[in-house]
Structure formats: C-alpha cells, structure tokens
Amino acid sequence: MCARDDGTNVLLDANENAYGPSLDLPSTGSHMMNGTVTSPNLDVNFLKLNRYPDPHQIELKTALCKFRNNHTHTTKDLTPDNLFVGVGSDEAIDVLLRCFCTPGRDKILTCPPTYGMYAVSAQVNDVEIVKVPLNTEQAFQLQLEAIKSTLSSDPAIKLVYVCSPGNPTANLMSKSDIQEILEHPTWNGIVVLDEAYIDFSPDGSSLAEWVTEWPNLVVMQTLSKAFGMAGIRLGAAFASQQISRLLNNLKAPYNISSPTSALATAALRPENLAIMRSNRVKILEQRARLLEELPKIARIGRFLGGTASNYLLVEILDKPRDQGGHASNESAMALYEGLAETRGVVVRFRGKEVGCEGCLRITVGTSEEVDRLLAETRSILQDLGHDSKTDKSATTSREEEGKETEASGVVA
After folding, report:
1. Residue 317 carries which DSSP code?
2. Confidence of residue 207 (pLDDT cuts 50, 70, 90)
3. Which of 117, 159, 335, 346 is disulfide-compatible with 108, CB 3.0–4.6 A?
4. Are 223 and 237 in contact (CB under 8 A)?
5. With a threshold of 0.85, does the pTM exceed it?
C-alpha cells in the first residue's frame, strides 16, 4: 500500500477538510512584531512560549459556548463551567472512561459500525465493550429497544457512546431516541454523544446545549473537521457542571498548548466563522456532486446511511447493477488498492464493519479532487469489468481476508 501522503496524493480517507483551516491567513504570509504573528484575524504571541499555557482555557471555552448557544433545544446558556477541552475528541473519550469506569469490572456500550477509538480506549483501560449494532434495515439508526433492554439487564455498563452523524454511516441519530436513553428508568449511566461532524449537518442539529437540561449527557465535538484544523488537535466535551468538574480534575494541568489555544480561539471569531461556513458550502456542493455522479459509474451500488457529513459510504458491486451486481468486498478492495497504489487517491475500506459489505467510505474533497476521484474510479472499475479475474488478482482467500482485515483496522 502506498504512503498516505507523498505530496501528490489525493487524501479522501480521514474526513479532513480539504479546503484548509478556517483562518483568514494572507497569501503573502503573516508578519511578526514583538514576538507576535499578526494577520487581520490572528494573533499568536511566540514570546510567551517560555510560559505554561492557561490550565483553565477560559477565553477559548467562552468562545466555544458562544458558538453553541443557539437556543434551539433549550433557553439555558452554556458557560465555561460546562466544558472540558482536550487533545482532540480522543482525550475526552479516554478521560470519560477513566472517570466513570473501574478497570476489569465496568463496561461501555457501543453501536457498530462506529468510530474505532471507543473500542481502542476501552481496551487500553481494561473496560469491556458491549455492542448493540445499528439497525442496518433502517438507515443505521439506533436499535432503541435493544439498547434499553441491555442497559436494564447489565448495571455494569456505565457509558453509552453514540456517534451522530455516524462514522462511517454519515447519518444523524434521532433526538427522540437519545432522549429515551437519557430517560431510562433504572440505568444510572452517561450517554456520550460524539458530534465530530455536526457542522456538516443541517443548522440546529447539535445537542451540545442540551447538557444544561440533562445531567447524564455529554456531547463531544472537535475543530478537526468543519473547521479544518485537525493539526492543532483540539476537542471539547460539553457536560453538566458536575461532570465537567470531574473531567477537568482528571486531565493533565497544561493539556492545551498556547498555540493550539490561540488558533482555536481565532477560528471562533466571526470573520473566521464566515470562512468555515463558506468552506462548508463548497464541501456540501461537492457532496451533492458525488451523490449525482458516482451512481453513473458501472459497479457503483447504493449509498448507505445518510448524507449529514463530509463523507459518503458507498457500495462497490461485483458486476454492474443492470446485470444483478451485489456488494462485494473483493471488488471494494480491488478499487481501494487500485486507487491508492497506482492512482494516488486514498479512500477508506469499510467492508468488514456491520452492514457495510463491499463499502468504501469516501471523504468529500475539493472540486479538483472529486474530478480525479471520479475519473480514476471510472477507469479502474472499467478495467475490472474487462477482466473479471482482476478483482481476485492472484491472491488466495486467506490472503484476501488478511488484506481486508488490515484495511479495516485503520481508525479514523
């Protein structure tokens, strides 16, 4: 398999924002004066790098709260006391486990297919995972009754991780379903709602402000996706003041660096939020284009899940639809490898996950990147159609299984 990025590859595998960071950076570069990098909407004081950063991050938390106080789901306001900020959402995932689960005894519940870091963090912390898969017959929504029954029968489950929009399924989970879990009459645990991709969803979709109404709800978010700032590693967890206090007591004192804090705070200013929203419009336009153009290619099947994010989950068929083609992991792997190894386009194989037979997850890129993806996909699948043996290459079923497992093991 090719390196992920040799400087020329089209990277459509990690759901990054191809349009770049939501910062007003002049094309001619910034200037430094008295140790401060200045541009119209960005100030980073490098002379203070000899000092530890603010352990409380009040300015950043205030900006995050202002951004999320939309009063769509409540009239109450979020305050900095409702926030934990960490090194990406992954730190929040981990600190929640350390806060609420006793190693070797307690459990978490996840709903596959879902983000892989819930399982990784649980394994690191010696916490058992109970799985209630999403309903593959109903657009990957929660199996609500199965979840409630499982929680009723197993008091060792302390956390329920729900990804909305789902990863890799790109669908929003029902607000009423979330509420029913929160209202469970006997289970005394925490619902953790992962909203990493929420800013690609319709306005008002975020339930972050709902933590002021539900003391057993935590909502995780990040600046890695819609804000295009994966490199600064900034995540947030909105929670009740009581839970927030616990999480902040568990973190390292200076977990957010000064440059990260300055860049994140700048991204939340009105002029930079306008850039984020402009980039989002471009991404949604290219998402609509993929939804229209991909099905015109022979051996492209259905889009599974939803369209509430900056990626799509698409089936690859063993033969064209009009010839009765079915979703095929062999065909998906052949396309996945062909794109990465010979065409410099990297996507994500997801065929080993629940309900995702023959699926690739494709991040929405720029117009030029989508052009290249469509052209290369059309070319490779056309070649596969000319040689039905190409899918299988010369590999044995055991080798093919190993390749699929390796491709599925990447977490993002």
Report:
1. B
2. very high
3. 159
4. no
5. yes
